[in-house]
Request: fold
Amino acid sequence: MIKFRNDAFQKSRGGSFKILDITCSNCGSHATYYKKDGSGMLRRMYLDRFIEIKPTGSELVCRNCKLQLGVRTLYKKENRIAYHLNNGAVHKKAVNTAEMEGLHVGN
Reply:
């Protein structure tokens, strides 16, 4: 079973999290899994919450159709690197952590 660490960012958002399957809204291909803390909309994706991949470029791009999903930025409020998502660029679906077996956890 995959273990996810608790940290100050998760605690500040109520202590709960969910795993999201992120897909491209243009072609529907799987982009990554992502650990989302707290409730609310997904507006940015923090670099340390990615599962499977560790994006390195200035843009988050769909590997299949090359659509720009987001732009790398520094979220000043928390001094963390994140990808600010373009409106409507991704779809998300909550998944069970049991489905995550065998994947590399990035944090």
Q: What stands out?
A: The helical segments are 8-12. The first helix runs from residue 8 to 12.
